[in-house]
């Protein structure tokens, strides 16, 4: 099946390929909104729907257009992608030994219809040592990920447990996406 993915994320591409979907990659030209942590679900939905609509306006929607926006929240603070190693260290220290939420807004547009939904997963980190944090940052993996970690990579050893959808933490909740596409007749 062919779809248009409104994202350049290699993780989202790999997740789609895992379930037999070959995405045509078309990153969205969309200025993402922001807000407070209490508005995180609304922000994720707004950004996903905006990306989806922007790409559909450019490419059409005869093929399904899929967009997503993932946000990490702890202590009523949204953790974006770290700007540098110091920011990554601060984020990982904050997450160490604690539980946070990963929130992904998903939007699908197909033949004039658009659905937007949100998925929330609780992620608990084990207690991390300063050496572990420094070694993880040295890999470079945290630098392009919200919350400064990737559960699908080396960051897997930081996570003690999750409550919810694993694929959501990677960046695209596949079960939710499947049900959305089914509802749109894809």
UniProtKB/TrEMBL annotation:
Marked site (Important for substrate specificity) residue numbers: 11, 70, 152
Enzyme Commission identifier(s): 3.6.1.9
SUPFAM superfamilies registered for this protein in UniProt: ITPase-like
Enzyme class: hydrolase
Active site residues of this protein: 69
Database matches in NCBIfam families: maf (TIGR00172)
Assigned protein family: Belongs to the Maf family. YhdE subfamily.
The protein's name in its UniProt record: dTTP/UTP pyrophosphatase
Species the sequence originates in: Phascolarctobacterium succinatutens YIT 12067
